[in-house]
UniProtKB/TrEMBL annotation, chain A:
CDD domains: S1_CSL4. It comes from Amylocarpus encephaloides. This is S1 motif domain-containing protein. Residues 88-168 form the S1 motif domain. GO terms for molecular function: RNA binding. SMART domains: S1 (SM00316). One of its GO terms (cellular component) is cytoplasm.
From TrEMBL, chain B:
Residues 43-208 form the Exoribonuclease phosphorolytic domain. It comes from Amylocarpus encephaloides. This is 3' exoribonuclease family, domain 1-domain-containing protein. Pfam families: RNase_PH (PF01138). Keywords: Cytoplasm, Exosome, Nucleus, RNA-binding, rRNA processing. Its main location: cytoplasm. Belongs to the RNase PH family. PANTHER family: EXOSOME COMPLEX COMPONENT, EXOSOME COMPLEX COMPONENT MTR3. GO terms for molecular function: RNA binding.
Length: 210, 317
């Protein structure tokens, strides 16, 4: 491995030569490292060539700049020393419903992207964010129940304690649910889960499995 | 406020008694002030290691070499004149803010500095006293200018430093009636400088975004010895090695930006020609510049320690 390690504050290059990636910051029109880790440069893929024959002389498009970034997750596969990560707007999270009211469902965010969170981050799915269509007919208790595991997208950093989440996409919604008799259920339609033992159906906002 | 929950030791000093017959036998060895053996512009040897606390997000340990009485044959720790510095720092976070906290678009930094009860010759209490809170505030000022807080909205980070062995404010012999007794808290300056350096290493270990690694450095104007009577400017002063410290300065310095995040000057300096003593001594700017030089020295140790950390984490040590 020939990666070089950057320490915070180290000069990485000028903004005219690189684009700043994660783990870097710009100071006085040059890019500096902001965390400790190996430097990685990613060169954007070059277009294969002019898609059609050039019929007139145009100005050559400037070559896209390579992105310079610092890998945050440097201790992957070593167990200890995991990196902290927090939910951001538009990141997809997995969360568990803790409490429902007619207006909203309160959740605990457990996973952001691929990484398991350490702390206790609270989230909120409001009734108007459950699905994209017929928003006025949504009922929270026909969409979520406490204990369900939900895949959702972060739409806002929210108020002082809650992140605001949304399930208004086909691939978002309940991915694991237990019935009232306590059995794990399987999805049968976009709004129904079925208990394999009793055969009873329950309403949920179901995430499209594929 | 007294601590009612624990059985406390006596509040005064609890150093081991020295019997007069012992004093009579080897008076020179015991009652000789340690002297500065390194040049004025040299720092003490420094040991810095990160990742000492596995349960924390980031941690670091800093140790400064204890100064020894040159004539003493006893090993360093058992000699009564030692004055080293041992600090551990743990960083917890970024973690969610408590529910009662208001919305914050950036990270909330909390610092705790605590002397261990056994850290100095005079025993410390279990609760933080005003000087420890003061150190915490200074440390927070030094670090706030470095952390890029906007990258971590709605979260808090806690930086906890325990001082395992603190710098003495004066030579212990001065306390029992030899020389002046009007010692200010000079030891705090070196401790704060160490705190800044060790916290900076722990923050980098925790992976919190910073604009630079901040390094602490101390410089002092000390009263000259018998050889050279004029006041000297020394880097990284050990208070017990000097009979009288006129002024001291500590900075938190960002080397790659050439910026200072924290500056604290104590003592008698900058009066120009008013005073005979200070007339020959250094100016305020010279003192601060020397402190920056000291910070550059500890910055080099920091960089080396951080590169080592990254190498270990990648697994190519």
């Amino acid at each position: 491995m020939s990666t070089t390690i950057a320490v915070p504050g180290q000069l990485l290059g000028a903004t005219t030569d690189f684009l700043p990636g994660p783990g870097t910051h710009i100071h006085a029109s040059s890019i500096h490292a902001s965390i400790l880790g190996p430097i990685s440069r990613t060169v954007p893929p070059k277009p294969a060539g002019p898609s059609k024959r050039l019929t007139k002389i145009t100005k050559a498009t400037p070559e896209p700049l390579p992105t310079i970034s610092i890998d945050r997750d440097i201790s992957e596969g070593h167990g200890q020393g995991k990196r902290e990560i927090i939910p951001e707007v538009s990141s997809v999270v997995l969360c568990k419903v803790t409490r429902i009211t007619p207006r909203q469902a309160n959740v605990n965010i457990l996973v952001v992207g691929e990484s398991v969170l350490d702390g206790d981050w609270q989230g909120l799915i409001r009734v108007q964010d459950v699905r994209a269509t017929e928003k006025d007919k949504v009922k929270i208790f026909e969409s979520f129940r406490p204990g369900d595991v939900v895949r959702a997208a972060v739409i806002s950093l929210g108020d002082q304690s809650n992140y605001y989440l949304s399930t208004a996409r086909n691939n978002l919604g309940v991915i694991m649910a237990t019935s009232e008799s306590g059995n794990a259920m399987y999805p049968v339609s976009w709004k129904e889960y079925r208990d394999p033992e009793t055969g009873a159906n329950e309403w949920r906002k179901v995430a499209k499995p594929f | 406020m007294t601590d009612r929950r624990r059985i406390n030791g006596p509040s005064g000093g609890t150093s081991a008694p020295i019997f007069s017959k012992y004093l009579a036998k080897t008076p020179n060895e015991l009652l000789e002030r340690p002297t500065r053996s390194r040049p004025n512009n040299a720092l003490r040897k420094m040991f810095l290691k990160t990742g000492v606390t596995p349960s924390a997000s980031g941690s670091a340990y800093l140790e400064l070499e204890a100064s020894k009485n040159p004539k003493s044959t006893a090993p360093g720790l058992s000699s009564p004149s030692t004055s080293g510095l041992k600090l551990t720092c743990t960083v917890h976070g970024p973690r969610p803010l408590p529910k009662s906290a208001p919305f914050s678009p950036h990270i909330i930094l909390t610092t705790h500095v605590k002397y261990a009860p056994f850290a100095t010759r005079k025993r410390r209490g279990y609760l933080r006293d005003s000087s420890e809170r003061d150190l915490g505030v200074h440390l927070e000022t030094a670090l706030r200018g470095v952390i890029i807080g906007d990258r971590w909205p709605k979260s808090g980070v806690e930086i906890i430093i325990t001082i395992l062995e603190g710098e003495e404010d004066q030579w212990w012999g001065d306390g029992i009636g030899h020389g002046n007794t009007a010692a200010a808290e000079w030891g705090m300056m070196s401790v704060l400088s160490g705190c800044i350096t060790v916290a900076s290493a722990a923050i980098a270990d925790a992976g919190i975004d910073c604009v630079d690694v901040v390094a602490g450095g101390v410089a002092a104007v000390v009263k000259g010895s018998a050889k050279g009577p004029s006041p000297n400017l020394v880097l990284d002063p050990v208070p017990s090695e000097h009979k009288e410290i006129i002024a001291a300065c500590i900075v938190g310095y960002l080397p790659s930006r050439d910026e200072i995040t924290d500056l604290w000057v104590k003592g008698d300096i900058g009066h120009g020609n008013q005073n005979e003593d200070t007339a020959q001594s250094a100016s305020y700017e010279e003192l601060a510049d020397s402190a920056v030089q000291a910070a550059l020295g500890s910055h080099r140790v920091l960089i080396a320690a951080l590169k080592e950390t990254a190498d270990v984490k990648i697994g190519r040590s």
